[in-house]
Structure to design on (552 residues):
């Protein structure tokens, strides 16, 4: 059974969720609502001085939960793979400057490469970043993506695969980010969550909902309660596995992005208490 | 390594692939092209006398590979579940009248039910049809669907689950239909194909391709070679697992349905020889 949620201290919202707002506005509104955490997407930092943003978030009493995102390691040629590694090292530096303890990795999948090759390149790419992550004190979290993204966004599509990879890299600086949107359908989800927690790899928990029907494969995620995901049950498993971090609301939605963001934030708060 | 394909004797096309054509036209064109098999969708039989269609297909020397489709067992109330079972019994009778040895099952998922409950209802639903299938001499093939359909079309989303269910029902009249579109991403695909073959459950093999990007979650499948699925490699596994049946082209595509179907059929033939 999941813990009762009665306030927003354990709620974290991703800047992409309220994409129409600049990070300064999102942060001010999250803070005013008593929300405990913020996960920052790199595009939200465009044109900003990162230490200034860090200070702003600290003043607002918002915990920086993660920086989104690194990854996209596989590529057809070696030069592109090296550029991907360099971009991940930069993401680690940005996370460090921002005070984010975690960089979430959308691992990538190279069209023209087999899934097996892409997976090998992902492992090699992460391995090439681990020392830098350690020096910066920033964890790298492998986020398995829904199988509908296997062709172009991630060749890591189940929690079992993410667990395998995190365990094989064997570093306290490599972990796993679990998003209910990507993994809710998996019949092995509960045992793999337990395995992930047992091995100390459960580093982030993302929530939203899966709508039937989904109109856009990228940007039609639902608010908690609008779809068919057993979010509360999964949160119970995550807590049973020892996770004590934030419940992160990450919603890409052309629908919600077109609406008034202040009203959307109220909907998120209500949905969080009633359907998470 | 997959066998070389040098003619169309082992090719089967689903009537839905050339949906704009009535079954009489599809059958005549498939036959003229030397294509060996046809899988018949129930909507293609609307308004027809099934024995007449059977005779027509026989005259054209087309093997009827399967009837599509039964399934959709889970439902909120018992009455709906009973109606689903009755519809599946009817599908078995139709398959028998048509001379189809197989009914493909899209198993269903009830919004408002957990996946675990839906899976239980699927198992119960199939079990309720097995005696009738045996009497009719028609196999029921569980087709695992892509996880993106877990919310509303099938709670069976991996070959492992289909294998588990087929094995637990323990009947020579229950088997599995494998579609590369639904399963290509699965890291366990190869061993699960071997398990499926070993247990005598590999009853059908469907091909098409996964396009990056996919514009419609239902009706934007690609022609073989247009996407990222390792079709030939998977066919090699299927053959290694002992499968000697047809390679069935099943493409739902708003794009291709709008085109000239004669030209589309030529494209299918070329893609079959070069990219399957």
């Amino acid at each position: 059974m999941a813990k009762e949620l009665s306030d927003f201290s354990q709620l974290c919202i991703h800047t992409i969720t309220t994409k129409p707002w600049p990070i300064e506005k999102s942060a001010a509104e999250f803070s005013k609502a008593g929300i405990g955490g913020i996960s920052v997407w790199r595009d939200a930092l465009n044109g900003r001085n990162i230490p200034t943003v860090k200070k702003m978030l600290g003043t607002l009493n918002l915990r920086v939960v993660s920086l989104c995102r690194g990854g996209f390691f596989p590529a057809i040629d070696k030069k592109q793979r090296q550029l991907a590694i360099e971009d991940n090292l930069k993401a680690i530096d940005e996370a460090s400057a921002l005070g984010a303890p975690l960089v979430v990795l959308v691992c990538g999948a190279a069209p023209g490469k087999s899934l097996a090759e892409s997976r090998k390149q992902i492992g090699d790419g992460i391995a090439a970043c681990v020392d830098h992550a350690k020096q910066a004190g920033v964890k790298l979290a492998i986020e398995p993506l829904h199988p509908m993204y296997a062709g172009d966004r991630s060749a890591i599509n189940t929690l079992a695969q993410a667990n395998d990879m995190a365990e094989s890299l064997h570093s306290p600086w490599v972990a796993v980010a679990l998003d209910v949107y990507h993994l809710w359908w998996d019949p092995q989800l509960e045992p793999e969550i337990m395995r992930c927690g047992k091995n100390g790899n459960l580093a982030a928990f993302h929530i939203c909902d899966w709508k039937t029907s989904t109109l856009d494969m990228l940007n039609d995620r639902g608010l908690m309660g609008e779809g068919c995901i057993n979010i509360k049950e999964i949160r119970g498993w995550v807590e049973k596995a020892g996770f004590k971090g934030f419940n992160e609301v990450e919603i890409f939605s052309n629908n919600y992005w077109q609406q008034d963001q202040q009203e959307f934030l109220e909907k998120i708060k209500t949905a969080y208490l009633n359907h998470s």
Summary: The beta strands of chain B are 11-14, 37-41, 63-71, 102-106, 139-142, 174-179, 202-207, 247-249.
